[in-house]
């Protein structure tokens, strides 16, 4: 039985899913990092693949942009495909003392979205990463000698024309990355009993006006993907 947004059959999706926003990044990761990758989703062109990494089954699927899209896929993965671990492989805008290409391990995700409040009686949920996944990513970074920072990030609903004071508020609260999904993914993961982590590459600097090329955001994030796959292979949680 397929679901409204996934045409994968039961069993075709692994219990561990990498979730980049961009479906073409998903295709690139499947081709470059997974052994024997097979296409398992094409519905809406939200490309998904399942293969193996060091003998473990791993899937990779685009999530689209923004919490509503990401939440649809994460919910269907958790409820209908038995997925247990979701790692977002994303890009973000950087604020303050970060540089393009830096890797952030999102410990917590603040947000301007109402998504978690809608599910949590209007209260503020602490949207946080799964601790064991976060620790596995920190350990993998150490073992692979990859520089990655544990960070607070901010998930916004507005890529354009958001709060004009956002950057100064983020700096004040020691938040260094802005993207569009992690807070919703973390809240949803808590409710669905799934373990989640967002790993983000800084693709833009919001104060310095620096930007990665779109092709690099699609295909140039190999260090981050290698770090995540290594962490997942060693994660015992
Ligand atoms: O590169 P991805 O994973 O899509 O992540 C970031 O890029 C998109 C905006 O350009 C948003 O989805 C944001 O969260
Ligand atoms: O959401 C995002 C992603 C990348 N860069 C940004 O500035 N914002």
Automatic annotation (TrEMBL):
The record marks 217 as: Important for catalytic activity. It catalyses: a purine D-ribonucleoside + phosphate = a purine nucleobase + alpha-D-ribose 1-phosphate; uridine + phosphate = alpha-D-ribose 1-phosphate + uracil; a purine 2'-deoxy-D-ribonucleoside + phosphate = a purine nucleobase + 2-deoxy-alpha-D-ribose 1-phosphate. It comes from the Bacteria. PROSITE patterns: PNP_UDP_1. Pfam families: PNP_UDP_1. Residues 17-226 form the Nucleoside phosphorylase domain. GO terms for cellular component: cytosol. It is an enzyme of class 2 (transferase). Gene3D superfamilies: Nucleoside phosphorylase domain. The active site is at 204 (proton donor). InterPro entries: DeoD-type, Nucleoside_phosphorylase_CS, Nucleoside_phosphorylase_d, Nucleoside_phosphorylase_sf. GO terms for biological process: purine nucleoside catabolic process. Phosphate binds at residues 21, 25, 44, 88-91. A purine D-ribonucleoside binds at residues 5, 179-181, 203-204. SUPFAM superfamilies: Purine and uridine phosphorylases. Its EC number is 2.4.2.1. Keywords: Glycosyltransferase, Transferase. GO terms for molecular function: purine-nucleoside phosphorylase activity; uridine phosphorylase activity. The keyword DNA-binding does not apply. Belongs to the PNP/UDP phosphorylase family. Catalyzes the reversible phosphorolytic breakdown of the N-glycosidic bond in the beta-(deoxy)ribonucleoside molecules, with the formation of the corresponding free purine bases and pentose-1-phosphate. Homohexamer; trimer of homodimers. PANTHER family: FI09636P-RELATED (PTHR43691:SF11), URIDINE PHOSPHORYLASE (PTHR43691). This is Purine nucleoside phosphorylase DeoD-type. It comes from Lysobacter daejeonensis GH1-9. The gene is deoD.
């Amino acid at each position: 039985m397929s679901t409204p947004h996934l045409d994968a059959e039961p069993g075709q999706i692994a219990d561990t899913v990498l979730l980049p926003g961009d479906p073409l990044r998903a295709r690139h990761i499947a081709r470059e990092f997974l052994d024997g990758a097979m296409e398992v989703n094409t519905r809406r062109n939200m490309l998904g693949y399942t293969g193996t990494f060091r003998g473990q089954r791993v899937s990779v699927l685009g999530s689209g942009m923004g919490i509503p899209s990401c939440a649809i896929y994460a919910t269907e993965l958790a409820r209908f495909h038995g997925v247990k671990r979701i790692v977002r492989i994303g890009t973000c805008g950087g604020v303050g003392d970060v540089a393009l290409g830096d890797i952030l391990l999102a410990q917590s995700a603040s947000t301007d979205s109402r998504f978690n409040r809608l599910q949590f009686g209007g209260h503020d949920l602490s949207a946080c990463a799964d601790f064991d996944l976060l620790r596995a990513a920190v350990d993998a970074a150490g073992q692979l000698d990859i520089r990655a920072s544990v960070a607070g990030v901010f998930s916004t609903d507005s890529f354009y024309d958001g709060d004009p004071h956002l950057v100064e508020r983020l700096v004040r609260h020691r938040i260094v990355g802005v993207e569009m999904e992690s807070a919703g993914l973390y809240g949803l993961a808590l409710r669905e009993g799934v373990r989640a982590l967002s790993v983000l590459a800084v693709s833009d600097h919001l104060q310095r006006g620096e930007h990665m090329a779109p092709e690099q955001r699609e295909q140039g994030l190999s260090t981050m993907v290698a770090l995540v796959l290594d962490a997942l292979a060693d994660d015992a949680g």
